[in-house]
């Protein structure tokens, strides 16, 4: 079995799980606020470690796709990498130094990365289902943003995988900020 195929299947199911967990968290927010609060408190207590895990998984995943599987990154992918890759090192340093005040900065990086990933995912969905596209700058030496390498379950593309991770980082950092404010 080809590594790209297997890797894509694993990431697709992880992304589906992450998307379903987001829906569940939203449902708890609406229906059972006490459960929502407990989950957010749990995430907030572990925000830096969870952030390190998510950012490391994202960084390794994107490198596996580009360096092992052979999918070249377009300009929008590179922009997302700019907002994800440093987080792995910053979270690692924050965990080592037991520093929690990094969460607001990571929240901003994740929000910007999420917006870029959302734009690219919408662009992909328009291309697949409406046979139209949204603009993307052409950059010499980089592939077109209109090339879709992964499509699983009718909506999971590489930008959706990235969007899922960025959104979870946003939630976890928000939980971490919230926890820090309740402690002080």
Strand and helix layout:
Layout: H1 3-31, H2 33-45, H3 47-69, H4 75-97, H5 103-130, H6 158-183
Mean residue pLDDT: 94
The run of helices and strands is HHHHHH
Poorly predicted runs: none
Number of strands: 0
Strand content: under 5%
Write structural notes for this entry.
The protein is an all-alpha fold. 77% of the residues lie in helices and 0% in strands. Helix 4 runs antiparallel to helix 5. It is globular, with a radius of gyration of 17 Å. The chain starts with a helix and ends with a helix.
Summarize the structure.
The protein is an all-alpha fold and 184 residues long. The protein has helices spanning 3-31, 33-45, 47-69, 75-97, 103-130, 158-183.
Descriptive keywords:
single chain, 184 residues, mainly alpha, globular
